[in-house]
Specification:
316 residues; 0% strand; globular; mainly alpha
Length: 316
Amino acid sequence: MAYHTSIYLFLFLPAALLAYQLTPKKFRWMTLLLCGYTFFWTVSGKLVFYLMGTTVVTHDIGIWISLVKLQCKMNIAGLHGEESHAIKKQYKKKEKRILAGGIFILVSVLAYLKYYNFFIQNANILLHGVGSQLLLEAKILVLPIGISFYTLQAIGYIIDVYWGKIDGQQHPGKVALFLGFFPQIMEGPISLYSQTADTLWAGTSLRGENISKGCIRILWGLFKKMVIADRLYVLVQAVFEHYENYHGVIIAVAAVAYTIQLYMEFSGCMDIIIGSGRMFGMTLPENFCQPFASKNAAEFWRRWHITLGVWFKTYI
């Protein structure tokens, strides 16, 4: 169920909006979470359990770090000078170990599912190059959709708890909703906990202004995706598959068209995602900002996939 398909635009999204509005305010977070897991189930089936597992690890690591911080405060109450500093240092080391363990678990699952076969294939090439008869066996692994996005959000959350920017959330449902908001699951954008979690949890009623602005943003995204990107794809595919039949100018035009097609594909889908979130009163972070108007390559990459760049700048 891609975001530009009829089943999403005319069935799932309207049903989610209706169910959300009909649900009492204090239970609307449950409706959004159910919609998120239902959406994930339709595109990934039982792989939704990876998302659930990530949620449990993220929630528990956040609570654990917060408890250690609380224990530290209690133990240094009334103390000063070197004694207080020594206790703080001891607890900080414990927090770092917990954080490192949480990041290791989250990254290990992502790396195994996404890159295991890549490393195995390259290892086999190296083994063959040195004359070894040993061959490592690749595995058939099904990658949960959106695992990169929700893993990065989960890592950002536990780091923010470690830094003291936020407290570890006691309610697992709030963490689950932050990681499982359905418009973001497939393609991002990557948001920080402080940007979206409270708004998602608030259960604010739908507003006509948000619905109309969301619809306009979705229509703009559909125009980019279906009118521009899909038509450029026909040109690009025709030239690239039979490049020997065309001269240099046509190939150059096709190369430029391919770049524009990719941008319209990604940014069009992002417009649909942001528009969907806006309908629920969510202001999701922008992911593209006219990258082709950039003056240099560095500025181009700052305008392309903005939230990924912000994530790396903040946490790496």
